[in-house]
């Protein structure tokens, strides 16, 4: 799961949780508000009940009942009751029921609010007040109460939540959309960071730079420091490899001189062995130099394979093996591979020397562009090799015959892999075809095929 999706889901869940808690809180606040309003209204009705008390022939009675007609409708949900020692007066709405007021002690004028069971088991909100009657009404304590069905309060709260729910849903959508926009803006530098790293890898940039948000600046700085350290280490490795190679060349040259001296005194077999060993060591040194140079090649390096091929053919035609062959070069001018020219010459030279060694009469150099890669093939018309031997020849010091050192193909493979390509051996029917698959330099386009022979 992407970081953006994780944050978006976490934000949406947080919004839903917050709005859910807010809805519960609002429902509680609205319920408390409705109950306070109902209590205030019942207090007015209780005042009306107390103000309407009178003493008649049958005792205490309510001469002026409250105006609300629900007090006269049986089980309407609105009730009043007057309780005096020895007598009980109640509204017609109570019918044959009575409010079961708790036996608590109230001071004169004190008001209590109760939750009681009413007619048919209904939940009632009861407001009770204790008063002392004046002497004209006979004196003595009286408990007056007004009650209403609490289900009306529950229904009001449910109606409030039903009205509020669509707005909460719209608010959740709006907050989620705002969170997504915030994530898109906030994570945009991460996309830029990825693009910059890709540019570094492809050679379109050299450093991350410092134009990053404060949170990403340490990452960019560490990457730049890592690149600088890698370049410095690579340069040191190149220098050490070059020093080692140049240090070995003098002893190798001395060995060649010693071989000439032995051959002069008739020790031909020993001289040949020393020369073969010295040549193998020299090729190994050259290979390590090529590898160190390729490892530190410039990110914007490019080489023209046609020009390199022409130069190699010109050199090989002056050798005994190359002079007897017909060289066919069909590489178009203007193509460029993402490789240093010296590295390309080293790789193509190794393959061309191998082809010249085994060809009967002809060597063909050709290319084929496949998207952003080039297939550069050097094929001979020699005896060829079995397909099962191709992988073996790619290993260091592996040879198809007793000539050479067996390093040419390995050097070409190393250079191709360092450039992001590969070396593939195949059957040329007849002969052997060695193909270098190399990335094209940026902006390179294939041109019409040209022939040089």
Automatic annotation (TrEMBL):
<keyword id="KW-0418">Kinase</keyword>
<dbReference type="InterPro" id="IPR003661">
    <property type="entry name" value="HisK_dim/P_dom"/>
</dbReference>
<keyword id="KW-0472">Membrane</keyword>
<keyword id="KW-0597">Phosphoprotein</keyword>
<keyword id="KW-0812">Transmembrane</keyword>
<dbReference type="InterPro" id="IPR003594">
    <property type="entry name" value="HATPase_dom"/>
</dbReference>
<dbReference type="InterPro" id="IPR050428">
    <property type="entry name" value="TCS_sensor_his_kinase"/>
</dbReference>
<keyword id="KW-0808">Transferase</keyword>
<dbReference type="InterPro" id="IPR004358">
    <property type="entry name" value="Sig_transdc_His_kin-like_C"/>
</dbReference>
<feature type="transmembrane region" description="Helical">
    <location>
        <begin position="167"/>
        <end position="187"/>
    </location>
</feature>
<dbReference type="GO" id="GO:0016301">
    <property type="term" value="F:kinase activity"/>
</dbReference>
<dbReference type="InterPro" id="IPR036890">
    <property type="entry name" value="HATPase_C_sf"/>
</dbReference>
<dbReference type="Pfam" id="PF02518">
    <property type="entry name" value="HATPase_c"/>
</dbReference>
<dbReference type="InterPro" id="IPR005467">
    <property type="entry name" value="His_kinase_dom"/>
</dbReference>
<protein>
    <recommendedName>
        <fullName>histidine kinase</fullName>
        <ecNumber>2.7.13.3</ecNumber>
    </recommendedName>
</protein>
<keyword id="KW-1133">Transmembrane helix</keyword>
<feature type="domain" description="Histidine kinase">
    <location>
        <begin position="243"/>
        <end position="442"/>
    </location>
</feature>
<dbReference type="InterPro" id="IPR036097">
    <property type="entry name" value="HisK_dim/P_sf"/>
</dbReference>
């Amino acid at each position: 799961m992407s970081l953006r999706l994780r944050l978006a889901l976490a934000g949406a869940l947080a919004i839903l949780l917050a709005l859910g808690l807010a809805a519960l809180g609002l429902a509680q606040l609205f319920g408390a508000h409705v109950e306070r309003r109902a209590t205030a209204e019942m207090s007015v009705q209780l005042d009306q009940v107390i103000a309407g008390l009178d003493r008649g022939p049958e005792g205490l009675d309510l001469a002026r009942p409250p105006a609300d007609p629900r007090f006269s409708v049986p089980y309407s949900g609105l009730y009043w009751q007057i309780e005096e020692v020895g007598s009980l007066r109640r509204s017609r709405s109570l019918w044959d029921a009575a409010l079961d007021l708790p036996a608590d002690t109230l001071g004169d004028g004190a008001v209590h609010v109760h939750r009681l069971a009413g007619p048919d088991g209904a939940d009632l909100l009861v407001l009770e007040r204790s008063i002392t009657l004046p002497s004209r009404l006979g004196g003595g304590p009286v408990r007056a109460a007004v009650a209403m069905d609490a289900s009306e309060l529950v229904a009001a709260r449910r109606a409030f939540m039903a009205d509020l729910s669509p707005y909460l849903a719209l608010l959740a959508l709006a907050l989620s959309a705002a969170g997504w926009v915030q994530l898109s803006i906030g994570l945009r530098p991460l996309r830029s960071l990825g693009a910059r790293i890709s540019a570094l890898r492809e050679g379109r940039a050299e450093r991350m730079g410092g134009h990053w948000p404060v949170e990403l600046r340490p990452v960019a700085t560490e990457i730049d420091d890592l690149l600088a350290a890698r370049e410095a280490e690579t340069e040191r490795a190149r220098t050490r490899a070059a020093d080692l190679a140049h240090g070995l060349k003098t002893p190798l040259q001395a060995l060649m001189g010693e071989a000439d001296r032995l051959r002069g005194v008739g020790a031909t077999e020993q001289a040949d062995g020393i020369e073969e060993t010295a040549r193998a060591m020299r090729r190994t040194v050259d290979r390590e130099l090529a590898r160190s140079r390729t490892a530190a090649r410039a990110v914007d390096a490019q080489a023209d394979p046609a020009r390199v091929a022409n130069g190699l053919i010109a050199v090989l035609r002056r050798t005994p093996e190359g002079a007897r062959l017909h060289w066919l070069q069909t590489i178009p001018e203007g193509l460029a591979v993402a490789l240093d020219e010296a590295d390309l010459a080293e790789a193509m030279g190794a393959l061309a020397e191998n082809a010249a060694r085994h060809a009967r009469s002809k060597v063909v150099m050709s290319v084929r562009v496949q998207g952003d890669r080039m297939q550069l093939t050097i094929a001979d018309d020699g005896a060829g090799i079995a397909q099962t031997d191709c992988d073996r020849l790619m290993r260091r010091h592996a040879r198809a015959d007793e000539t050479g050192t067996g390093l040419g193909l390995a050097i070409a493979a190393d250079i191709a892999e360092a450039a992001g390509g590969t070396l593939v051996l195949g059957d040329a029917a007849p002969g052997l075809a060695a193909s270098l698959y190399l990335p094209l330099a940026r902006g390179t386009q294939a041109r019409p095929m040209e022939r040089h022979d």
